[in-house]
Design a protein that fits this description.
The protein is of the alpha/beta class. The chain has 2 domains: 158 residues, Leucine Aminopeptidase, subunit E, domain 1; 316 residues, Aminopeptidase (3-Layer(aba) Sandwich), CATH 3.40.630. 35% of the residues lie in helices and 20% in strands. It has 14 helices and 21 strands. The strands form 4 sheets. Strands 8, 9, 10, 11, 12, 15, 16, 17 and 19 form a 9-stranded mixed β-sheet that branches. Strands 1, 2, 3, 4, 5, 6 and 7 form a 7-stranded mixed β-sheet that branches. A hairpin with a 5-residue loop joins strand 13 and strand 14. Helix 4 packs parallel to helix 5 and helix 5 runs antiparallel to helix 9. The protein is elongated, with a radius of gyration of 24 Å. The mean pLDDT is 97. The site of zinc ion has 5 residues, from strand 11.
């Protein structure tokens, strides 16, 4: 799907479909007004008594005085309530309608509707991301595909071209590619998307973009002393991997940004076995890893001026005769010992060794991304990603990037007061802290391995995938990571 920026007038645009917005109470946007004038009021008349509810659509054909064969009207809701969510819903509704129509090309005049205080580049980015998201399908494992090729091949964003908009478009395209990669990796089942598969995927990216890649094998981890990571991988027939993927697009010698992604390709819980219901969703437990690969794909694809190192610990959490038992004590790469009181709290065990390993790259900042706790879903639901940080400035930067990307986060406390919940009689500390504040004690565990770094942790347990009818990976938080890296590079 191609996107281009071109100044167009809605009545004269030679395109398969002109997409226009209108608010409740038949309040037309400027572009819709122009079309209505050219059509001598036929548009307003056709609206009849439709509500203009956000995301509602109405298709008109052969409007007099209008060059395009079809005009798609999209409801934007009450003008006073119009904001980011309404804009994104309208884009999604327009994209879905264009898909139903089988339109080959369209001009999205929705981009000229002001969204609060957002610059027009914001509209542009979210028009591209929303459209690409709506057209995403995961059908590679179905023998009979519903869609052949995507019908919509060209979308014009009718704005006057500028260098700033061109770079916003490049960012949006690359971000959409990265998010699609993350979604596909997340959606692939655990019998296909194994740790080895993720390593191959990283090598593929490395070849495509000339990135540096290194994959540590079990024996490398043994030599290094990654006792925590290895304890999780013990009972699986799939060998664990630690993937290191580097993109150096920034100034030589500038310290990199490190992204550490949880890559549990399937989480059964291990000996602390999970209940059967919805266990299939634990194939998504590598979504943090997928988001790191997606973000690197995006940043390399747009040749962003940043240095990023992705560190991905990946393995499978299985029960079995050689599995870790509750009560086992392991020595982490940092030297600290951990009592594994629950083998289902495995994410922190692979991440702690990966964080210690990431320190060797002397990162300016480290972000870890993990489907870490069910407790985070209880706290924040499926809207906000949980944010934790040992540096408030970093937390503020992440929050600002998340807000721009509309891939939102909510900060949770990381106070020392919670640390005592991790106390152990047999090791330096335990891997669980009891029921209260489960996502905070998980973050507190990780904090013990990031003391010397500027570090933030994103708990994406509630935001990385959807359940139910719409079950599938969301590609979050790729948009946030890309935006953060770009802001970090000084390109605001
Ligand atoms: N991958 C899960 C977290 C998870 C559970 C994410 C459900 C999304 C939905 C993680 O490894 C896990 O099992 N966490 C445990 C921790 C507990 C044993 C302290 C949890 O949240 O129950
Ligand atoms: Mn688990
Ligand atoms: Zn897990």
């Amino acid at each position: 799907m191609e996107f281009s920026i071109k100044a167009l007038s809605p009545e004269a645009a030679k395109t398969g479909c002109v997409v226009l917005g209108f608010h409740s109470g038949k309040e037309l946007t400027p572009a819709a007004k122009r079309v209505d004038q050219a059509a001598r009021g036929a548009l307003r008349k056709a609206l009849g008594d439709v509500s203009g509810k956000t995301g509602s659509t109405l298709l008109l054909r052969g409007l007099p005085g209008v060059a395009a064969e079809r005009v798609l009207l999209v409801g934007l809701g009450e003008r006073k309530e119009f904001g980011e969510n309404a804009y994104r819903d309208a884009v999604r509704a327009a994209a879905n309608a264009l898909r139903e129509l089988g339109a080959k090309d369209a001009a999205l005049f929705l981009v000229d509707t002001k969204v609060g205080t957002r610059p027009v580049s914001w509209n542009l980015r979210h028009a591209v991301l929303g459209t690409r998201e709506a057209f995403y399908r995961f059908e590679q494992l179905k023998t009979r595909k519903k869609t052949s090729a995507p019908a919509l091949s060209h979308v014009v964003l009718p704005l006057s071209p500028s260098a700033q908009l061109a770079s916003a478009l490049a960012e949006a395209r690359a971000t959409a590619d990265g998010a699609a990669l993350a979604r596909t990796l997340g959606n692939l089942p655990a019998n296909i998307c194994t740790p080895g598969y993720l390593a191959d995927e990283a090598k593929k990216l490395a070849r495509q973009y000339k990135l540096q890649v290194e994959v540590l094998e079990r024996r490398d981890m043994e030599k290094l002393g990654m006792g925590a990571l290895l304890s999780v991988a013990r009972a699986s027939h799939q060998p664990p991997k630690l993937i290191v993927l580097r993109y150096s697009g920034g100034a030589k010698g500038r310290r990199p940004l490190a992204l550490v992604g949880k890559g549990i390709t399937f989480d059964t819980g291990g000996i602390s076995l999970k209940p059967a219901g919805e266990m299939d969703e634990m194939k998504f437990d590598m979504s943090g890893a997928a988001s790191v690969l997606g973000a690197l794909h995006a940043l390399a694809g747009m040749r962003a001026p940043v240095n990023v190192v992705g560190v991905i610990p990946t393995c499978e959490n299985m029960p079995g005769g050689s599995a870790s038992r509750p009560g086992d004590v392991v020595t982490t790469l940092s030297g600290q010992t951990v009592e594994i009181l629950n083998t289902d709290a495995e994410g922190r065990l692979i991440l702690c060794d990966a964080l210690t390993y990431a320190a060797r790259f002397q990162p300016e900042a480290v972000l870890d991304i993990a489907t870490l706790t069910g407790a985070c879903v209880v706290a924040l639901g499926h809207v906000a990603t949980g944010l934790f940080a040992n540096d408030q400035k970093l937390a503020d930067e992440v929050r600002a990037a998340a807000d721009e990307a509309w891939d939102r986060v909510w900060q949770m406390p990381l106070w020392e007061d919670y640390q005592e919940q991790l106390r152990s009689n047999f090791a330096d500390f335990a891997n669980i802290g009891g029921r209260p504040a489960g996502s905070i004690t998980a973050a507190c565990f990780l904090a013990r391995f990031a003391r010397e770094m500027r570090w933030a942790h994103l708990d994406i347990a509630g935001t990385a995938w959807k359940s139910g009818r719409e079950k599938g990976s969301t590609g979050r938080p790729v948009p946030l990571l890309v935006r953060f890296a770009l802001r970090h590079a000084g390109r605001k």
